[in-house]
Specification:
By secondary structure, this protein is of the alpha+beta class. 55% of the residues lie in helices and 16% in strands. The chain has helices at 3-40, 43-47, 56-68, 84-99, 116-126; strands at residues 72-77, 103-109, 131-135, 140-145.
């Protein structure tokens, strides 16, 4: 078979696909351009990447996020100062996530090692899923739980 015929059969479809991808890429760029302009005008843009929550907004946010989690939770906990009722609420919420099969990883500040309330939370959550904990030489404690149904 003549090489130019083979070339036409191989290269032409690739060229057509490349042109189609360039067209699609241009359409996506246009769509994101409009989205970016809308976002820049929003309140979220002025706040940046982080939102500061206070008071009851914290608990509502956590309930929503943990309740919606499907695969994994990555959390970082404060040093100490969390009261027993808030730790108990967190345990109930987090255990429910584990029972749905959600994997959970938590970093604790080193002072949490001395918190009896935090130890009780860890014990309660540990009873509901396999756990591994690693105390590192840095200022954090890393714990990991895996839920049962996934």
């Amino acid at each position: 078979m003549e090489p130019s015929t083979v070339q036409a059969n191989v290269v032409t479809p690739m060229t057509q696909r490349g042109a189609a991808l360039l067209t699609e890429s241009s359409q996506w760029a246009t769509a994101f351009s409009g989205l970016s302009q809308t976002w820049r005008r929003s309140d979220q843009a002025s706040r940046g990447l982080f939102s500061e929550l206070r008071g009851s907004a914290i608990e509502s946010f956590l309930e929503s996020v943990v309740g919606d989690a499907e695969y994994e939770l990555l959390t970082a906990q404060p040093q100490t100062g969390r009261d027993a009722p808030s730790i108990q609420a967190a345990a109930v919420r987090d255990i429910a996530a584990l029972e749905r099969g959600v994997k959970m990883r938590t970093l604790y500040q080193h002072s949490a090692r001395r918190s009896s309330i935090t130890h009780k939370y860890v014990a309660a959550v540990t009873q509901r899923g396999p756990r591994s904990a690693r105390w590192t030489s840095s200022s954090t404690v890393s714990s990991s739980w895996t839920g049962g149904s996934r």
